[in-house]
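Thread: "does anyone have the structure for this chain?"

Original post by V.I.:
We have the sequence but no experimental structure in hand. Need at least a predicted one for the grant figures.
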Amino acid sequence: MKSNSVILLLIILSALCLQGCDNNSNHGIEGVAVDPYIEGGKFQEIHSDHTPGQMSSLSDRNGRFRFPTSLSPDSTVLMILSGYHNGIPYYGTLKTKIRFSNGLLIVSPLTTLLSNLMDSGLNEEESIEFAQQMFGDADHPLTRDDLMADPMEAAANGNSTPLIASIALNALFESLDRADEQGFEIETLDEAY
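Reply from O.Q.:
Generated one for you, tokens below.
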């Protein structure tokens, strides 16, 4: 009889422990900084009213970072510490909208483009269509999922289109940043071509 009580107690304690583990896993959100993977980057949640929210952990060598609690669905995640990619200082600024997250929060040049387009007044669908026209073609179309996926993982799975688009977009961003630093004023992307 005593052994049955001990077994019952162990079952109850195990169930409580597992319930606690489940509750803890639902509070945070994990992300990946990709251009390619960025190590030592830090991100901050920016609420829709432009007030700062919580900060992430530093990204590891695989670009993985974590926010300690859930993020607001209408927030933006902005890189506030650039870190390194391939051992070289990363000078870009990446961001993404929480609405783009499909479980794992991806922060890449592609999500940055979509976020910037939405911040300039386009809606989500218009932003996606613009990016698809800008970087896709008939032989290698960019899908909605491609735009919000980890480009490195997509390439590892045989789809190099998001990685190629991401590299091209990063080159464009760096060129625009250099032009700005040298005093050139570019008001729209049309003027950049």
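V.I.: this helps a lot. The beta strands are 29-33, 38-39, 42-46, 52-55, 64-67, 76-81, 84-85, 88-89, 95-97, 105-107.
O.Q.: and Residues 78 and 139 are 33 Å apart (CA to CA).
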